[in-house]
Amino acid sequence: MDFSTELEKALGKEKVTSNIIDMFPYSRDWSPMFFEKDYLPDVVCIPSDTLDVMKAVKLASRRKVPIVPWGGGTGMGGDNLAVKGGMVIATRSMSKILELDEDNRTLTVQAGATIQSINDYLKPFGLWFPHDPESKPTSTIGAAIMCDNDGTFGIKYGGMVDYVLNCVVVLPNGEKIRLGQRKAASTSSGYKLMWLMIGSEGTLGLVTEVTVRVFPRPAHREVMLWLTKDMKEGMTALYNIHRSGIWLESAHINDGHRLDYYTHAYRERTGRAAEIPEGYDSLLALTVAGDEDVVEFSVNKISDIMEGMGIKLFENDEIVNGWWASKHTLQWEKNKWPSGQRTAKFGAADVAVPPGRINDIYDAYLHYTEKYNIKKVGTAVYNSRPHISPSISFAVYVDDHDKEQVKNFFRFVADMSKEALRMEGTMSSYIGDGIRLRRLTRLEHGKSLGLMWEIKKLIDPDLIMNPGKIFPKEYDPTDYEV
Amino acid sequence: MEKKLHIERYRDDIYTCIRSRCGFCFSNCPLFLSTGLETYTSRGKSMIMKAFLEEKVDLSKELAERFGQCTNCGFCTTNCDVDRPDIFNAFKADLIQSGHIIEKHESICKLVMECDNPYGVGDDGSIPQKFAKKSRHGSKVLLYDGCTARYRERRILHAMMDIMDEFSLLERPVCCGSVLLRTGNLDDARQQALRLGEILNRYETVVTPCAGCYNMFVEQYPKMEIDIRPEILHSTQYIARLLETGKLHLSKIGTDIKATYHDPCHIGRRIGIFEEPRVIIKAMGFELAEMGRNRKDALCCGAGGGYKSLSNEKASNIARIRAEEAMSTGAELLITACPFCVRNLRDGGASDLEVVDIVELVAQARYYPDQV
Asked: What is the CATH number of domain B105-243?
């Protein structure tokens, strides 16, 4: 009996397909890659619950079939691609809400629930889950945990380690294990094995159920765009606001190119780009949220700080609202993703640097886009952890029909990564290593990559769990010098 | 000489989708919700069409079966720069052109061409005695009933006759071509549209209770460059206008009754008729409880695009998801504004819920102040 038939027998026919037609939809993520490239799995499995996943993984483990977890398929690093074929486990079919504990403000869901669907569910209860990537209608909570990506409201609520209380993980041997504490917000007991899973890109196991913290939905919000002479000035303003005691809900820095990208509706309506006025170089976008009087007080205080620094407000409601629609509300006439990618593909280097190096890394972006002759989409600086913690999207357009340009894109990513490391930063702040950075992980982690490899082999001795990610090809842990 | 592929003109649109991969097209895709497989989603179909254009998969019966499973609800286009169902219908045309035809679709299309309706029935267009006086051959207002209201949900047709003061009714209905278009029979659909367009142009106003027919006249005929001169009104627009001008009075038959409204895709997200039905429902005194997914985000009932004729069971399964959503609002009445939606939602087993077309309620609530 072949693997697919065996799976069908275990899970039911409607949950398994190995028809080549059904493999193509699972053959690419959102990564820039040569247009004709695809990574075809051999079989796609659509589980309903943890038990289905356990059965599928057990069978795969027995035959040493590669297992590739698939969430929303919007990743930008190839984390969910079947580089060695095998079985894609498409988790969107596991999207049930399992428990809302209103009193303790926790929510337990199946891992395939999209972030948008979680918030649709929470809205009538006056609650929300503030992890807010722009891909939220599609990206799943399980994949968000495994990629440990950033989100719009990170400066107030933090990242995945701050949200996730516990999760059920199916290990490569098909056994399930619950990691993390129960519903307490923190614990000092035991190794933080759940933290090991967060950002592990599905290379250690497949998350099937999650308990996260949820928060009161703010009643009011004010969105402001401020004009700054450079990015560093924006960072200084953030320090000053932080010092004042104001609790920001979100803080982003954009350059002019990115403003244009985010305000496509304005561009379409007026026929011209939304431009940063002369004399300024970048924008600091802030939101504050809460009760009306607190919001009003915060806005006044921020305005005082900005006035003291000589920073002016960008007063154009249409542009401000358009920008915010791209970031959060998604209330637009036309989706910016397809309308921005008619002729070329969006790609990004997603490095993070210490706050003081923001201008230096921006200069590197200008240098390398020119060196490789790549068109800029622009820069978006997120603050993805409480206080000030820039994680940056240095985005470019890639003509994915041109092999040389695709290669140049990866050279650009590699050079930006190396620059970030030189500046005591990190190569990736939201995309993860996937297949795109695995040649460079030695550079970032040195000897500790060897320890990661030992952990990987301990949990996944047959190396079947999402192979080909994070670790360099033909990885030799003793060879950590670059 | 080989015929040119219909999807060639959409190559850029397909490639744009491949570059975007945003997946905003399928969070409410009825086929995805009921199968969990991306093959049936708009994003997934783009990947398959790309593979076809790169000669990695051939046109085949299996491919036809996959592309046939779509309700043409258009949710995929709500957040997209690209009009998705047009592309799918073009690809279905390519599949038909290469001889890969879904038998069930072929048979209903044959019935349309032979009998002017997909049910393969006919009648003499007789009108119940009580409405006979309203029907005038000279009337410039055409009541275009559509096949489901005439042959399967006749209460809806009678309700329309009750509401309208005068109308013309085609003795022998001519199909609008919706089934043909949405199963990929593009040439036949156009022929049908030309034929019916000529008839419609004899009137000043056309009123229809069918969301599918309305969509053909307002959205699809112009795309086929067929000029339609009369004003086209969906039943809800017609009734809302009568209410606004004081020509129609509705009693509060809905007092103390909680109702919810299902937006039919073809008048809702495709055209934007959202408020008229809600105004009418409230005018009848119902307490309107909205489902979480409403207006442009409404979940399809599962009937359209030839899906119900392909698999009544699967279409009913989708209707069940929608009916459960309606029941979760606490409503006891599920109101919609399309005979096909009524039919499928009822088949969807909403046992604790009465499914009704809005015109049936309006006919029931109508009163004449001078007769009170």
From this structure: 3.40.50
